[in-house]
Amino acid sequence: MLNEIYQKQKDGCEKTIAALRRDFGTLRTGKVNINILDHVTVDYYGTQTPLNQVATVLATDASTITITPWEKPMIKVISSAIQAANIGVNPNSDGEAVKLFFPPMTTEQRQENAKQAKAMGEKAKVSVRNVRKDANDEVKKLEKDKAISEDESKKAQEEVQKITDSYNTKIDTIVKEKEAELLKV
Predict the structure, then answer these.
(1) Tell me: the pLDDT tens digits for 152-169?
(2) DSSP strand E in the chain: where?
(3) Element (H, E) at 42
């Protein structure tokens, strides 16, 4: 029973770390990353659709992203969606594709992105603490139902805390690595 609780807690924490890494993909580093467009949706025949489902999105070099829509009329819709998403660049259209030219990042932009990374890390830690709370609630329920003794419950809660601490350390390490990557010129 307790091992199932520990495993469920570890699974929840792993999902949190995967979500943190996905969130980090939206932060801009020295070179462009197409993940910066992950949250951009376009109106595709009345349905809000992710950009990568209506066009080919490629990073053609370190500072340019090219978006080639599968249907030519989508160029205007894509341009306006990118404009509305406010990702820091203006879309340029050549009639065939939409191009995004990213200027080199300033020190202030790098520091702002590092702050965002830290905030994302804190959000992940809150999520890990919520997973810990759920695990502790399950342990306390087992104790209340007399499935385990009070001593076993205390040991189980200590183990839950150890798992939480190990994932918080992982999150700190991941955030430090991302900050170093963001601040590197």
Answers:
(1) 999 999 999 999 999 999
(2) 41-44, 47-50, 55-61, 64-69, 91-93, 98-101
(3) strand 41-44
